Amino acid sequence: MFGSLASLQPRQLAAQVLNFALVLSTAFMLWKGLSVFADSSSPIVVVLSGSMEPAFQRGDLLFLWNRGQETQVGEVVVYNVRGKDIPIVHRVIQRFGGGSTPLQLLTKGDNNAADDTELYARGQSYLDRSQDVIGSVVGYVPFVGYVTILLSEYPWLKTAMLVFMALTVVLQRE
Amino acid sequence: MHNTLTRVQNVFGFFTSVAFAVAAAIAMSVLLSPQTPSASLELRNVQVVKGRPHYYSTKREEYAHVKFDLDADLTSLFSWNTKQLFLYITASYPSSDPTIIPPSEAVIWDAIIPSDYAPLHPNTYIHPTSKTAPKPKKSAKGKGKKEVGKPYPAGASPGIVRLDNQKPKYQITDVSGKIAERENATLTLHWNVQPWVGALVWTNTKTVGRWQGLQGGEAKFAFPPLKGTEVKKDDLKTETGGERNRGSPA
């Protein structure tokens, strides 16, 4: 199995490595390009909780747009709680300010009876549109993102997938 | 060229391309289905009281309780790509400086109306049945099947909403704590169509192609002065929705 790898010319090996690096960098640049286009640090998110059911289920993929600073009530926004790194997808139910003052938003999940005041950081009663919100949901594809949830909840899946991919690459040489 | 791995790869690649193309076609086809939404929204009663509207309120503040009538026909919003309709009514009022700050807005009532093809979910709007309708007969078995209400009146289809003197789901508070005697407030009906796949769509008031703008669905009012102690606790009760997570948010 490994004999076939060793029989490759150095130039062929280098070409394979370069190909692989090109694929990786293309994927990375597509992601970053989309980030710039949508003006969001994370333009595609996966729904992690069931707090927006039945609209969004766990594993759904959401496309975000962050160029509309005048977020309206009823829009679904993705935000990070200050100090934490978990994105939360909820709907805006109140807005104050805007224009020349910071836009303050109150959010609530469709499947939560209470609004998000308890989720915000200590002393914070409202979200700041320019600081806390990553983007507003404009598009949606069901189920596609469930793979990422499985990968993060079962870490052995990640190693299993990598081993499987490495095996197929090596075995294809035959 | 003809080993199993290549064939599996080809099949999987073809499956992915076709699935993507079909999803894109479904998402784009929504533009072809005509929409003719219409609604009539009227304010029934508004009261402003001082108290603690939320369970986490630490100090007393002024809050408003708005009751309304709604008669809407939004059946044309339900196309083959509609998973659910999120209907909501907001009250908006001018800010402290209308020239540079846009109006403040708050949702007072919302409802999730799923399409008939959507899988059953407990978080669904249950349309109140009219009191004069005959009550369904109790089942002959000892433990009868629980009658679950539908999100539309009996005999209608999803999108028809007829509410009379409807209590709100949320009280309106202002960030300053004062909401009494504010003029030029507006009650507006909005919706958000959640598709099976594709772009989320919100209320359109202007006609775009086959989609007509919403006719009606607005009511102007003014917040009255603060009421004293004559307000009964019963009058300020809010409607309970179908949300499953009660208590602190997850």
TrEMBL record, chain B:
Ranges annotated as spanning the membrane: 12-32
Keywords: Endoplasmic reticulum, Membrane, Signal-anchor, Transmembrane, Transmembrane helix
Biased composition, class Basic residues, residue ranges: 134-144
Composition skew (Basic and acidic residues), residue ranges: 229-250
Matches recorded under InterPro entries: SPC3 (IPR007653)
Lipid bilayer topology: Single-pass type II membrane protein
A GO term from the CC aspect: signal peptidase complex
Keyword DNA repair: no
Residue span of region Disordered: 124-160, 226-250
Annotated GO biological process: protein targeting to ER; signal peptide processing
Task performed by this protein: Essential component of the signal peptidase complex (SPC) which catalyzes the cleavage of N-terminal signal sequences from nascent proteins as they are translocated into the lumen of the endoplasmic reticulum. Essential for the SPC catalytic activity, possibly by stabilizing and positioning the active center of the complex close to the lumenal surface. Essential for viability.
Protein name (Swiss-Prot/TrEMBL): Signal peptidase subunit 3
